[in-house]
Amino acid sequence: MKKLILMALLVTVSAAALSGCKGGTKKGGNGSVTVGITQDLDSLDPHKAVAAGTKEVLYNIFEGLVKPDENGNLVPAVAENYLISEDGTAYTFKLRKGVKFHNGKTVTAEDVIYSLKRCAGMLETSDPEVRVVAALSIISDITAEQKDGADYVTIHLKEANTELIGYLTCSIIPKDYTDQKTKPVGTGPFRFVSYTPMKSFVMEKNKDYYGTKAHFDKVTFSISESTDAAFLKLQAGEIDVFPYLTVDQAEQLKDQYNIEVGEMSLVQGLFLNNKVKPFDDIKVRQAMNYAIDKDEILQMLNGGKGAKIGSGVYASFKSYFNENCTNTYNYDPEKAKQLLKEAGYENGFTFTCSVPSNYSYHVQTAEILVSQLKKVGITMNIQLIEWASWISDVYQGHQFESTIIGLDSQLAPSDILKYYIGGTAKNFINYESSKFDSLYKEAMATTDEAKKKELYAQAQQCLADDAASVFLQSPSLMVAVKKGLAGYKFYPVYVQDMAALKKAER
Fold first, then answer.
1. DSSP string covering 201-270, please?
2. Residue 132 CB: number of other CB atoms within 10 A?
3. Which of 117, 198, 398, 477 is the one with CA 20 to 30 A from 342?
4. Residue 264: predicted pLDDT
């Protein structure tokens, strides 16, 4: 017997707004808005994008069978509803009628199957640039049928997996469309207009969108080479929305902008390469954890806002977040010194931390850590690198000693913890633990939700006990929204939803 999971239709988010916005109101339209970002897009093809900063933009263009809402629910998109078999080995989706791609063609079951197989690496002819979703390797087949005048797509699995729905937000694209890299086509509330590298990504309202349509006719993502450059644009009033502010920046902008405060759904950490000295020694990694004062970091960067973490799941993922891990290492510089002595580093050591220069928040975190670690005799040298170099050298090449970054995920606990599975490419810190791997595998396999939560809690504690890295915080998220705008929404995943943003009703 199958369990029916019906999903409510997307609702219009109502929000009070003030008047005015950049671009004004043109006759018969609703004007434009400019959003500041500090990272260039690494691909316009959603299946080839790696950077979270790219995905937050493309969220407006593309949709999956389901999509996340601001409450962490997976709501209807290309699918109208779905069924999960009782044994967790089959997902059946009823496709929504009349959904059109931005090129005017109607979405078919063939498009859905093509998109899912492309993401899963199941096409006969594969594209090496496509970032195959490892979680989808569990798929054995994807079939389609018509009944009662509707199209259904069923995903058959090799084994039970009740978390797969969290990965089925992967973008549905046209099967026979060949210009995705330069003229992307999806089903979202905005359609692509233009892209100029390191300058702008422009999109316009999709007037044929099946759901609640966007309020603005045009949205421009203005790309700056650094946060400092973007901040100058903010001060000049050239940007209407800008996320990831520091406390000091927010204070300077309060006359022009409303400062919206939420929480980033990120695991920010000082990630340590477990295969290079001295971080191949657990005592050194534990010493690093005791030497770092997370409360001071939150106070200096966020005015005390944000949430401390002690393992690999971010705090807003409440169903699976193991709060006990935050107490595994309390600030204790004397304990840190003792562990360094036991590890043979009584006089400390020097190491390099590679930090992507376009993320000022991570750079500022690094500067605080330099001061904290110095107190126990450890010298941390900051190496600022371009984002492209971080992707190639650190994330993909594993050629680094340490780095500071924020990790995001799909709405599945297996996704945020996938970075620590032994021997996998995404395990960029080279962490190895047979215990963690076993817990992760067992949690993935069970269909018992209570057992799943307990196993993932144990896996998080395993990361903490092994001091796999220094898990710092889920930072607060401060967003500058120009006065006269409202409707900005915070999500438990990394997106910038421009469809909900609107002007005031006078």
1. EEEEE-TT-SSSPPS-SEEEEEE-SSHHHHHHHHHTT--SEE----HHHHHHHTTTEEEEEEE---EEEE
2. 16
3. 398
4. 83
- Residue 148 host element (H or E): none
pTM over 0.85: no
Residues in the chain: 506
Pairwise CA distance, residues 91 & 81, whole Å: 10
Sign of CA dihedral 74, 77, 78, 79: positive
Strands 485-486 and 79-85 come out as unpaired
Q: Residues near 97 by Cβ (< 8 Å), separated by ≥ 6?
A: 80, 150
3-state secondary structure of 325: helix
Q: Is the peptide bond before 278 cis (omega within 30 degrees of 0)?
A: yes
| Residue pair 438/79 in contact by the 8 Å Cβ criterion | no
Q: 317-359: per-residue pLDDT in tens?
A: 888 999 999 999 999 999 999 999 999 999 999 999 999 998 8
CA-CA distance, 31 to 21, in Å (whole number)? 8
Task: Kindly provide the b/e burial profile for residues 372-383, where b requires at least 16 CB atoms within 10 angstroms of the residue's own CB.
Answer: bbeebbbebeee
Contacts of 89-92 with C-beta under 8 Å, sequence gap 24+, read 89/156, 89/157, 89/159, 89/160, 89/161, 90/154, 90/155, 90/156, 90/157, 91/154, 91/155, 91/157, 91/164, 91/165, 91/168, 92/2, 92/152, 92/153, 92/154, 92/155
Average pLDDT of the residues of the chain: 91
Dist CA 128 CA 311 (whole Å) = 32
Query: Is 1-15+31-232+488-506 a domain of CATH 3.40.190.10?
Result: yes
Degrees to nearest 5, angle at CA 173 with 169 and 175: 135
Q: Which residue has the tokens 């450059």?
A: 229
The pair of structure tokens assigned to 297 is 């970091």
- Superfamily of structural domain 267-474: Dipeptide-binding Protein; Domain 3 (3.10.105.10)
Q: How far apart are CA 403 and CA 425, in angstroms?
A: 17
Q: Which of 35, 148, 6, 106 is nearest to 485 (CA)?
A: 35
* Residue in this structure with the two tokens 């106070």, named with its chain if needed: 299
Q: Where are the domains of the chain?
A: 1-15+31-232+488-506, 267-474
